[in-house]
Design goal:
It contains five helices and 16 strands. By secondary structure, the protein is of the alpha+beta class. The structure holds 2-acetamido-2-deoxy-beta-D-glucopyranose (3 copies). Pfam families: DUF1191.
Length: 318
């Protein structure tokens, strides 16, 4: 009997663990994994552009055919000269003096990305429309130009911010306010004010674009690039559905487990009581003195000198 109770308890813990894991996985998955995988692919292809690498010159790379529409470029720099001189222009980016990286490397490579018509595929921002493509600027160790799967260095502007001057942007609907959107490498997005119609500032690396809030009554906004419409709404409604099913699923699982837990406690309690009664009967048979006492608000016979007095609370381990 005792063994059975212990294994039930173990089973319960197992159930609880599985349920908890399930609920955990429902909560959120903040890492944009496809976007990070894309960064790794683009780093690899950008490095291949360095056929005859010269410092401080941008080299445009060629993306694999399945990513047609994305532009990449790479620039190799000595980190000392990057810090002292900055980079006048690297595509849409203007990099001031004072750029620092962590961990320190002697040479680094800045990889530029323009996701073009792939922007909304990799960086969906529900409730907003893009009026410019996603641009990326990421820093890597530049010592080994045949390396792939490199981690990004930490890069930040310690004096003035980096300026991003977007070229031609789609017209902003009348009455809407355009904002700069910055995605950091963990998928966190931060909206800041747009300057001079198409300029954003940043002190860190990441992915950048210009967004406007989508109109509340969902009319197909004519200025928004047509390719940005279909991939935006389809996944978000699917995501909503998934979320609802997740909530229903965890609520059902939770209720079932509560019932299971209640039954388990009830069963254990009755088992304990029966066992004690049996012990008391045995004690009575042996001629030991009995007296009535209160146990948990219930009158029950109580043996004064039962040697193995079971401890009601601590035996459950709950
Ligand atoms: C982007 O455009 C290219 C052609 O320029 C096309 O091959 C590719 O499939 C498009 N990507 C998306 C996500 O629509
Ligand atoms: C950069 O790459 C070189 C060559 O692979 C390596 O020796 C060095 O340790 C790397 N530096 C950092 C900070 O990872
Ligand atoms: C977002 O930007 C604002 C303004 O620059 C800043 O105060 C805030 O800390 C930023 N939030 C994150 C999460 O970076």
């Amino acid at each position: 009997m005792r063994l059975q109770f212990q294994s039930s308890a173990k089973l319960f813990v197992l159930f609880w663990f599985i349920w908890w894991q399930f609920v955990e996985s429902q909560v959120s998955n903040p890492l944009p994994k496809p976007a990070r995988a894309l960064d790794a692919t683009l780093q690899d292809y950008a490095y291949r552009a360095f056929v005859n690498p010269r410092t401080g010159i941008p080299f445009d790379g060629i993306v694999p055919p399945y990513l047609t529409g994305i532009e990449i470029s790479a620039m190799r720099l000595r980190s000392g000269s990057l810090y002292r001189r900055g980079v006048q222009t690297f595509k849409e980016f203007m990099i001031p003096v004072g750029l620092r990286e962590q961990p320190y490397v002697e040479r680094l490579v800045l990889v530029y990305q323009n996701l073009g018509n792939w922007s909304t595929t990799y960086y969906s921002l529900p409730g907003y429309n893009y009026v410019a493509p996603i641009l990326g600027l990421l820093a890597y160790n530049g010592s080994d130009l045949s390396a792939s799967n490199l981690p990004e260095l930490d890069l930040w502007a310690s004096e003035e911010p980096i300026t991003i001057k977007f070229g031609r942007i789609s017209p902003v609907p009348v009455g809407a306010v355009a904002k700069c959107a910055w995605f950091d490498l963990h998928g966190q997005v931060n909206l800041t004010n747009l300057l001079a119609g198409n300029v954003c500032l940043t002190t860190e690396q990441g992915h950048f674009s210009i967004v406007v809030k989508s109109a509340v009554p969902r009319v197909p906004a004519p200025p928004a690039a047509p390719e940005s419409e279909p991939p935006k709404h389809a996944p978000s409604s699917r995501k909503n559905e998934e979320r609802i099913w997740g909530i229903v699923g965890s609520a059902t699982g939770g209720t079932a487990l509560l019932v299971l837990l209640a039954l388990l406690i009830l069963w254990a309690w009755r088992y304990k009581k029966r066992k004690r009664m049996r012990e008391l009967e045995r004690a009575a048979d042996a001629g030991e003195a009995l007296r009535m006492t209160r146990i948990g608000g219930m009158r029950a016979p109580f043996a004064l000198s039962t040697r193995t007095m079971p401890n009601f609370e601590s035996d459950f381990g709950l």
